[in-house]
């Protein structure tokens, strides 16, 4: 009889790794070794879209534009700047080659936080205070009676 060889078998040396023993202190199980799967290493890319994003030089130019345009009554661009360059905010020491990039992004974060605090305090002041807080000046501050004030209701 002729011997048939198995095409899956090979004469190459094989290495086996022993399975970890349950309860062993040195066994590393990637599913149970840490409760969070967060990556704690430095960021490799300055933008959230990774290798598809901008180079380091272009990142500084875009961050500068977002930061400067935020001063021209567009403070939500500061929020966009913080979101887009989130790896720079998240990993402070990973982009030491471009300290200007971090400066613009942190400046945008501070600017947006200040804007949000001012806007929220203004809104809460008008919602809670109203006529009791401002007295007779309240009628000049509110905008819902502008048509009556200027006599525009007679036109309709």
TrEMBL record:
Keywords: Membrane, Notch signaling pathway, Transmembrane, Transmembrane helix
Region (Disordered): 1-22
PANTHER family: GAMMA-SECRETASE SUBUNIT PEN-2
Transmembrane parts of this sequence: 66-86, 106-128
Protein name: Probable gamma-secretase subunit PEN-2
GO cellular component, one term: gamma-secretase complex
KW Membrane (keyword) present: yes
Compartments in which it is found: Membrane
Membrane topology designation: Multi-pass membrane protein
Low complexity bias: start-end ranges: 1-18
Pfam families tied to this protein: PEN-2 (PF10251)
Organism: Olea europaea subsp. europaea
Record InterPro entries: Gamma_Secretase_Asp_P_PEN2
Family: Belongs to the PEN-2 family.
GO BP field: Notch signaling pathway
């Amino acid at each position: 009889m002729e011997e048939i060889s198995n095409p899956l078998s090979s004469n190459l040396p094989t290495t086996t790794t022993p399975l970890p023993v349950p309860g062993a202190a040195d066994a590393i199980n990637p599913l149970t070794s840490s409760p969070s799967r967060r990556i704690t290493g430095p960021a490799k890319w300055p933008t959230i879209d990774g290798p598809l994003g901008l180079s380091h030089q272009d990142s500084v130019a875009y961050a500068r534009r977002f930061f400067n345009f935020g001063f021209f009554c567009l403070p939500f661009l500061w929020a966009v700047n913080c979101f887009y360059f989130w790896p720079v905010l998240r990993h402070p020491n990973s982009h030491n080659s471009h300290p200007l990039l971090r400066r613009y992004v942190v400046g945008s974060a501070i600017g947006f936080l200040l804007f949000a605090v001012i806007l929220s305090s203004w809104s809460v002041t008008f919602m809670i205070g109203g006529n009791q807080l401002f007295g007779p000046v309240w009628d000049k501050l509110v905008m819902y009676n502008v048509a009556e004030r200027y006599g525009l209701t007679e036109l309709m």
